[in-house]
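Two folds, back to back.
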Amino acid sequence: MYFFISQLSINDMLLTTVIVPFMLHILLNNGGTIGFTDCIIQFYFFCTSEAFECLLLTVMSYDRYVAICNPLRYSSIMTNEYCVKLLISCWLAVFFIAAMDTVTLLMLKFCRKNVIDHFFCDLVPLLEIACSGTQFVELEVSALGPPVLCIPLIIIIVSYSNIIVTIYRIPSNISRRKAFSTCSSHLIVVSIFYCTLFSVYVVPTSGQSSTISKVLSLIYTVVTPFINPIIYSMRNKDIMKAIKETIS
């Protein structure tokens, strides 16, 4: 569990490094300018980070499923080698997905208005200022988007459905509470991440103002990485004990 939490922390640092510095530059200067190459690089690493978090949260749900539903086999299933293989598979998959999205975006032509109504180079604002046809890009996003978002979410739902059934079969209330407490932090993070992500990219945006879209984007690019360490720290007795010992 701690191995996967450390990878989530690394991914959160990657996302905030890509987004926050330029966002602060925009806010302090009432606008900002970014080069085309820098914009594409930011878009690539943004896609990489978001796709990796989708897959990593799925792997973490599987880890909790094995720990609660198959506790006696946990150490033999979730070995160090297997965890590293899962992690490498996630990184390779997201590098490939982000590369496909970026290459497809580079096929567009930007020849007129170059003002992006956003605080980072996201797909929808870039499509709005493209002066060439965006049908191919939209088709590619429609083909890749649902599998990347929905398949991990389905796996998470199935994992937690089995976890809940297993927890309710435990006769002791104390053991039930302890088993559920190991999953509560992950459930909170998954809920915040997927609710905002679906609000921006899956729910139809007709009638949705650009301000609302930017606020929702702000939640999963800045707020979520900020509160992830707080959620996992405040709900983890080992970490709280270590903090108290360090302070005292």
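---
second:
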Amino acid sequence: MIAKHFAALAFCFLAIARCCEMSITIEKVVDAVELGEGPHWDVTSQKLYYVDINGQKIMRLDPTTGKVNYAYMKDGHVGVVVPVEGTKDKLIAGVGRNVVLVSWDGESNNDNPPIKVLASLDTDRTDTRINDGKCDPAGRFWAGTMGLEVNSTIEPNRGALYLIDSDSSVKKVLSPVSISNGLTWNLQKDVMYYIDSMTRQVSAYDYNNADGSITNKRVIFDIKSNNIEGLPDGMTNDADGNLWVALFNGKAVIQIDPKRGKLLRKIELPVDRITSVAFGGPQLDTLYVTSAYVGMTAEQRKLKPDSGALYSIKGLGVKGCPPNNFKYHILQ
């Protein structure tokens, strides 16, 4: 037993030393929005897309100039956005309960960009919205829903996780879900990692890249049992196969070894409500982090005025993987 305690202590010291050695720097990149989410690095344009959910905006950052442009989605909350493969001005986005094709080149602000509805989700109810999503290695779009917040409360088990294929066909994959959030796939394309935030767990599924089917659910990391504060939110993976998870109300992002179910690092940020993460930059070695001030009191915002800002973390000593774009076969 004593040996085990010493081993655990040695691991902690090693993790702390590793963080110090790498001279990690955390920088605020863009000023606050109410509910920033869904960062996605576009390798082709070298720009970062993300969303302001409650502001109903798709955002695009040019890191070389610091300029941010937006496209306003008049039809509802914007939960996720991903570029369409092989195009310069097409994006797939979750707006309200619809998956839409947006035409926007990102070069200037647009308050009414052309859209085309590709699919509608949760068609049997009106009290949900698309919250997060991502494309799998085959270019299919996954989008999850959640219940609408009423009086600062989200009713559990109102949402689901959907798969939207390149021909716009829709398949409900998981139901019920409370707050559908982080998604990513391993480097071998045979495991999908998924977060339903209210469970406070990161789950893994066997994944079939040929048809997108998932089986054999297992929990690979439990936030509560590891005495970690906050809810797991957005997620990505690095080129070493480890996971990076944002902690809403947890003031941090964590790095997890999914094979061993072990916490590797915890990087604290100057704000509490961390929403999502994505690697970007020319070398994919910058971790972009979105945050929020939604639900905070005026006094809380006064104490932490940068809540909702977009941050970058450099010096982590790891690189990300090029993100998957949507492969849409019926562009017109």
